[in-house]
Write a structure and sequence with these properties.
The chain has 414 residues and is α/β, with parallel strands linked by helices. The chain contains ten helices and 16 strands. Helix 4 links the parallel strand 3 and strand 4.
Length: 414
């Protein structure tokens, strides 16, 4: 895709190129940092983001915008007029983790923390809305930008499905999002054409038998031994029954059975996740998992019930949308700002939007240059706040380019 600044059309009807976002951002940055610290200090779990939603709505209304609340929690806001040109999404929920950062604005909600960076995502998109409002006031946008603040990304199969059910995606031709990346320095972004995340499902295997004495396992079903075989062999067999390039990975995070060392229990449960790099393999893997668990357990005569909770497909970035996003990042942060990142084994419900419309998700560098490399979903994760300004610049520039692109598309259809 060629650089939109060098083509006909305009970001706002009569301008010839995408303006630099930095000057429009500077007036908002202190307020954005304060906002981020506030919602970081008051994190809320999936579908419980009531205070967070109120704070977002208040901030948008203070900027002269008219946000629309979603059912329950979350909201969206449109900036500009005419047909919708692009949708931008932030996720607003936190994790059930006890924060251990030592920050002055650490979570005051016991056992809840923004350890995945959704506070940064939310703040970035709030900044985008404010900057776009300023730009639209100075020279009306040639299309509408929809900024979405979505609940419950962390709760499979994801709050994105409820948003889509409420019609928020109707009329949106393409979608963009960002995600914190603690392995990338501030001032850089990571992109990838094609799948950038993986499919992620929750798996629970319930195992039962008659129970008995550990001195006589031959007279009953040795439940714990059978569970051990399931734990070890199901991941191994799955890796041999599915194309290795699909990256199917079954990993257990919980095994429970028994209360006495000399008693074979009658009930037990294994729970974990199944992740997959390839969407087609993900669709096929459900029936195969049931089959493999049954085959592994069969010699031990235990009863097994597989509870397979479908999660999310991979986020598959479109080539044109990723190129547009990369051009925006280079424009705002410099020619060396864009890095190729590996496909993550993590799941992300932004994938559901990209099942409906094309789009792209980028990784926003949050590591202080020369500083420690953190990991997401860890209690001590700290994001460098300079990443907020970088995110606002790139996503605003992306939105303006998408407005120009949509205006050309509609002109070609007339």
């Amino acid at each position: 895709m060629s650089d939109p600044r060098h083509e006909s059309g305009a970001w706002s009807g009569d301008a010839g190129q995408v303006p630099s976002v930095g000057p429009f951002l500077s007036r908002w940055l202190p307020e954005l940092i304060s906002f981020r610290r506030d919602i970081h200090q008051h994190p809320e779990l999936s579908y419980q983001e009531f205070r967070t939603t109120d704070r977002i709505v208040e901030a948008l209304e203070a900027a002269g915008l008219n946000p629309v609340r979603l059912k329950g929690t979350g909201c969206y806001v449109d900036i500009g007029h005419g047909p919708i040109a692009v949708g931008l999404r932030a996720d607003i929920d936190a994790l059930p983790i006890q924060e251990a950062t030592g920050l002055a604005f650490s979570s005051v909600n016991d056992g809840v923390a923004h350890s995945c960076g959704h506070d940064v995502h939310t703040t970035v998109m709030l900044g985008v809305a404010k900057v776009l409002a300023d730009l639209n006031h100075s020279s009306p946008l040639a299309g509408r930008v929809r900024v979405l603040f979505q609940p419950a990304e962390e709760k499979l199969p994801g709050g994105a499905l409820r948003v889509i059910e409420q019609g928020v995606l109707e009329g949106v031709p393409r979608m963009f999002a960002l995600h914190c990346e603690p392995k990338v320095d501030v001032g850089h972004v990571g992109t990838r054409i094609g799948a950038i995340t993986s499919a992620s499902d929750t798996v629970r295997v319930h195992v039962s038998g008659d129970g008995g004495h550990t001195s006589r396992p031959h007279l009953t079903q040795d439940l714990v031994f059978a569970m051990a075989q399931i734990a070890i062999n199901v991941p191994a067999v799955m890796s041999r029954r599915v194309d290795v390039r699909s990256g199917v990975s079954v990993v257990w995070g919980e095994i429970n059975a028994g209360i006495a060392p000399n008693a074979i229990p009658s009930q037990g449960t294994l729970a974990g996740t199944m992740r997959c790099l390839d969407a087609d393999a993900w669709h096929r893997s459900g029936a195969l998992l049931d089959e493999v668990v049954g085959q592994v357990a069969s010699p031990y005569k235990v009863n097994v019930e597989v509870e397979h909770i479908r999660g999310v497909p991979p986020v598959v970035n479109g080539e044109d949308e990723t190129t547009l996003l990369e051009n925006a990042a280079r424009d705002e942060l410099g020619e060396d700002a864009v890095l190729l990142v590996e496909q993550s084994m993590g799941g992300e419900d932004f994938a559901w939007y990209l099942q409906e419309v094309p789009g792209s998700m980028m990784r926003l560098g949050t590591r202080t240059p020369g500083g420690r490399t953190f990991d997401l979903h860890q209690a001590d994760y700290i994001a460098d706040e300079e990443a907020i300004g970088c995110g606002v610049q790139v996503m605003t520039n992306t939105a303006l380019r998408a407005v120009m692109l949509r205006a050309r598309e509609l002109a070609g259809q007339s």
